[in-house]
Specification:
Blueprint: E1 4-15, E2 18-29, E3 33-38, H1 44-51, E4 59-64, E5 67-68, H2 74-78, E6 82-85, H3 97-104, H4 116-125, H5 127-131, H6 142-153, E7 160-164, H7 172-187, E8 191-195, H8 199-205, E9 208-213, E10 216-222, H9 223-228, H10 230-237
Parallel strand pairs: 3-8, 3-9, 6-7, 7-8
Antiparallel strand pairs: 1-2, 1-4, 4-5, 9-10
Protein name: ABC transporter ATP-binding protein
Family: Belongs to the ABC transporter superfamily.
GO biological process, one term: L-amino acid transport
Length: about 240
Amino acid sequence: MSDNLLELKGVHTHIGAYHILHGVDLVVPRGQLTMLLGRNGAGKTTTLRTIMGLWHASQGTVRFAGNDITALPTPQIAGMNIAYVPENMGIFADLTVKENMLLAARKARNAAQMDTTRLEWIFRLFPAVEKFWNHPAGKLSGGQKQMVAVARAIIEPRDLLIVDEPSKGLAPAIINNMIEAFDQLKKSGVTILLVEQNIHFAKRLGDTVAVMDNGQVVHAGSMAALAEDEALQRSLLGLAL
């Protein structure tokens, strides 16, 4: 069995007339948290959406757990125990937090059938989910919605969790809470691919890192090594971590 749970090789993605990804090579090792970094417009979100089949690669391959998923439809990809939290979080605003969670719990037809042990674990990770359980999700703050979005993604055990900018627009205290939650998720054995702009977030959590520019991965390696090399940071990201 490969040490890499997810592998992209030579992936190109076109959106209409636009050629966004130009041969992306990316590996996500099992049981680790991989950071996907890069300037705005580098192709990070397009990479995540291509993995999930929301946009299909026009060339190259996407392999998950050894299986070619390049041309599969999104529901089938999600059914392989992959959860995706988009940048806009995808919260159903008119539904309660409980109803949002129930939609993702495919084995439960009602709240009473949800795994109580797992729910209690999620409540410890994200206390706001329990606190606002019966509140309309649309009434929550941005940070609370983000917690609900991640909690919903892990209401059932996942092999791979893909999250697009979980700390975007959040207050520092909530970011620290989110860092602790992802650290616990990582320790539970979940493989995580994370797009992030918050450098503190990246340094605290990342095991491995891939840096994108102009639709390609231009650097891949240890997050700790990148965090220690200011010259490399400036050349890749235009700033020092």
